[in-house]
């Protein structure tokens, strides 16, 4: 079994565990629920200067994101991406036109997360989705550094697909056609030798600020 196959197998296994309530995120939520019921009365009245451990299962900003959530996001979005890239490097180096396209997210843009953003309104939930968003920012860094190391004739880019109707979240009913974003991946995967490398692109072909 190749490294890429093993990574894919582990990702599938982790996804099944989460759906069945056995994954690290669900376990963390169950522990928080038990803590909430055990919280002593004096702790509930504690002032903000000496807060008790957060027992809420909701929200995923810095206050409530667990190390397990961060680890799961980074293992899938960052370490998995690196492992797959390394597994394919021998074949890519044998190609006359090697291309690497990483699927990022507009939520990973620090500029878009602190200013006007055409893909999502970060001000409606400031600081949320910490694990996912910072892992996608890491994908941007991996993309840029990979492009710098590999150089020509490689073309290494990252694409922000925008919100799509997929099974990323349960009962997803909003977003555009996933095929539209897939077409953007194909465009970057078939760039001419004069095409850009080390870039951060939106699905519509425009640049995304880091």
Would you mind describing this structure in some detail?
With 210 residues, the protein is mainly alpha-helical. It has one domain: Rossmann fold (3-Layer(aba) Sandwich), CATH 3.40.50. 46% of the residues lie in helices and 7% in strands. Strands 1-2-3 form a three-stranded parallel sheet, sandwiched between helices. β1 (99-103), α5 (130-150) and β2 form a beta-alpha-beta unit. The longest helix is centred in the middle third of the chain and has 27 residues, at 67-93. The chain is globular. The protein starts with a helix and ends in an 8-residue tail after the last strand.
Summary keywords:
mainly alpha, 6 helices, three-stranded parallel beta sheet, 210 residues, Rossmann fold, single chain
Outline:
With 210 residues, the protein is mainly alpha-helical. It is built from 6 helices and 3 strands, in the order H-H-H-H-E-H-E-H-E.
How helical, in percent, are the residues? 40-55%
Indicate the CATH topology.
Rossmann fold
CATH architecture grouping: 3-Layer(aba) Sandwich
Q: What is Rg?
A: 20 Å
Q: What's the multimeric state?
A: single chain
Number of domains: 1
Order of helices and strands: HHHHEHEHE
Number of strands: 3
Q: Pairing-aware structural class of the strands and helices?
A: mainly alpha
Strand content: 5-15%
Task: Annotate the secondary structure layout.
Layout: H1 3-19, H2 24-38, H3 41-44, H4 67-93, E1 99-103, H5 130-150, E2 155-160, H6 178-189, E3 199-202
Parallel strand pairs: 1-2, 2-3
Helix pairs in contact: 1-4, 4-5
